[in-house]
Records
---
Amino acid sequence: MKTVIIIALISVAAAAKLPAGGVDTTQVPILRQNQLNPELGAHNFEFESGNGILFQEAGKEGVAGGATRVGSFSYPQEDGSLVEVKFVADENGFQPDSALLPVAPAFPHPIPQFVLDQIEFARLEDERKAREGKTL
């Protein structure tokens, strides 16, 4: 019963923050928009909106089929800072580049030599078994 009351209070609090009618109907003007399709399979377009969103992309047909796309987009955050993302999308997939993307931490310590020796021993053992026709 307490859970139901807590969920109801959270729902009322969340609904109170929504604009009247529950949907934000503010229209955002497009300040600039350009599109160019110079040849079949190629394109270049960009736009800038009144709320600070900027998007640009150029693309063409890929060498082995598919498509290659290069572009960037940016938008302002609530704190006023600007998010910028550059990207390439091709046969290697979508590859974004941004200071906001997480980066894996560096390995905290060097790998001890005895561990490297054991890995090499296992590799050599697997090769030997493969030459002898034994299953792994």
---
Amino acid sequence: MRKLLRSVSFPTQRTWVTQVTRDVFNDKETLNLPANYQIGWMEALDDNKFISDITIPGTHDSLALHGGPAAECQAWSLEDQLKAGIRYFDLRVSGDKLKVVHGPISQHTTFFDAFNTIKEFLSRFQTETVLVRVKHSSKFPDHVISQLEYDSNSLVRNDIPRIREVRGKVVFVQKNSFYLGVPLYETDKSGDYKVKNTEKKKDKIIAHLNEALDACKVGSVVLNYSSGTGWPVWRPDKSPKTLAKEINPWLYTKLEGAYKEKIKGCFGVIAMDFPGFDLIQMVITFNK
């Protein structure tokens, strides 16, 4: 077992047994929220905390809803992901019109469609903040960069803000040619998304979460991925959905065990494929 904070271990699979069926994997379009669920979960966060000191549920390739098993990474729309508690989004865009894509496959929306959806959500839930990372297939247009720099609903500076400074705002995260926003510390190494052996992938996830606990206060937002895809990509037994169906229940159990062990610190962003509602809430629980 790998160590947490040098003294506490992630539990083995048998240490914590979930007694009821949990919604940890979701591949259905419809979002069903509990009757008394509070969408604005960030309201309870300490205003003085830095955005880098909390644990944030996110999605990998957040708008990859189309294109078949090799391309699809999510089932819920952007708005439903927001309602379910997701506060980090990974947008892959292409061309001057900033069409959202997954590889060569169009996702039938644009960066500005997504940006406006997030801003509309934040106008209704002003206690929240949403982190957005934008990856362009070539160079992000300069005129859009200029536009975002003057958008009052965005935070584009490169120092880590406190929660009180970003409630109701989009916080951009730096990526290559998209240089606006807060710096990022990625625990994933090159090629970690390629999965030949699921057990080895789980070992990497544990190692990255351990690394995140130590890295959470380095002046960057820490990013971890639980997502992956089979390699070669055409393997149907290792599609993003197939992997998430196996990894998400395992990840829930590991996080539940870490929470019961009263692990101190934060895991940063945990970016997932096809997360279910209960898995998202388990990630949020580390902020309580």
---
Amino acid sequence: MERGEWAWKRMMMKEMVWSVAAIVVSFMAIIIWQKLWLKPRRIRSILEKQGIRGPTPSFPMGNLSEIKHIQSQFSNLSSSTSHPEHWFHSLFPFLQQWRKQYGSTFMYTTGHKQHLYVGDPKFLKELNRIKTWDLGKPTEMSKNVKSLFGSGIIRANGPHWSFQRNLIAPQFHLSKIQNMVDFVEESTKAIMRKWESIIEESGGKMAEIIIDNDMKELTGDIISKNWMDNPVSMLKHNSISA
């Protein structure tokens, strides 16, 4: 009697374990399905209703295979031609190709992530006016460029982004930018003359130039010239921001 009861308990325990495992697997499958298929499809549907198109994604990699194919095609084209304008699209040739196909605003997919490419100046102007925190940068992309951009406004999110935006926005008013044009042109020409001399010293064909320090020098030169031209205005702005 005891042996039969023990066997029955073991059978019930096995059935319970299998039932729990089936529930967990089903739950995980639903979550994965929602994240990889349902949510991306819902986002694409919303954009399509607004007239925004893009390349058709394939499950589960989206447009990654198409991106690799376009990049390989561009690499072969670049190696067989010497047109200097090709460098402009060498980093993201798929964006240039899709822009020709779908217009200045389109969408594409990498894995389960949906991307909206905006190349319309009017649309970009409207986006720059929006101060909502919902238009933040993806965390995974921000981490990848942290070593390049630090914690500046390019990768900041939330309150940190809002604080930096309010701090620098007054310095980009049209009147102030117009006053800086001459400084920018003068400093940029100096850096370009430096690069040209390096190229001439190497034979006039090609030279490897590390521009990191030069760009820092360029930025500092423009800021210092602007400061010397109008120090009172900058001091007033800094005191208000503080």
